[in-house]
Amino acid sequence: MNMSFDRYRSQSLCESILGCANFEEFINKPYTTVESLILDRNSAFSLSASLKQDAKDLYFKGCQSLTESLTSFNNRLYSWAIIKAYYATFYMIKADFALKDIALIRHKCIYYLQATEGSSPLTKGRTSSSYRSNYSGDHKSALNYYNDLFSNSDILLSQEIEGLSSYQWLMKKREQVNYQERNFKEPFFPDFLEYINSRVISGDFLQLIDEIINDNTYLLTFQPEYAPISIPYKRALQTQKNFQDNGIYEILSNDQSEHLLRFEPYCFR
User: Taking the complete model, does pTM exceed 0.90, yes or no?
Assistant: First the structure.
């Protein structure tokens, strides 16, 4: 397997701490070796610094995904709009993990590791664990660990949508469109997008976005007709604020900002 492309700094750092030159060496280490890693002060500092840089990369991926999602909604390309809305949410959640000094480390399962002295990798995804299916892949593990750790502090996890957490609801809609249905619905749309389609057809899609942005009480956020856009947009706004709370105000490069601005008025940055 060729892993020569740019990878997350936090992943590479954890591999190097265990003396691995590449991911292939790392994944062949037994669980017990990975779980025996204990961060000292220097490695915790290095991991924290790596996570802050990873957070910026993840944020840009989230911005581009959200920008492309909004553009696709406006163009009534609803299938990819939903898929990209989900990915925007996923990347913003991963950026938020990094801002909170938590690394998600891929091994034979997904570990989370706090960038503090004395911390060791933890997982619910061991083969012997009854939780493995929820904590082995990148997507389910990120959403489930986030729910485990931050359900009491993330307002987007304060209410359910149709019996699911907001993030799980959006993931299910993405799976419906991307995997479960035999075909994309275009030139029509999935039933759960009827309200958004009506706003696009009436020419006030930008007004819909403004309503979501200005929904400070989150009354609209958890309504299914708004949720395909409100969940990723509110998640992006929260992650943006978390950068600022960490004293990071220049998140994107000039080139990245200029690239996103090409998609005005639907760009998020």
Answer: yes
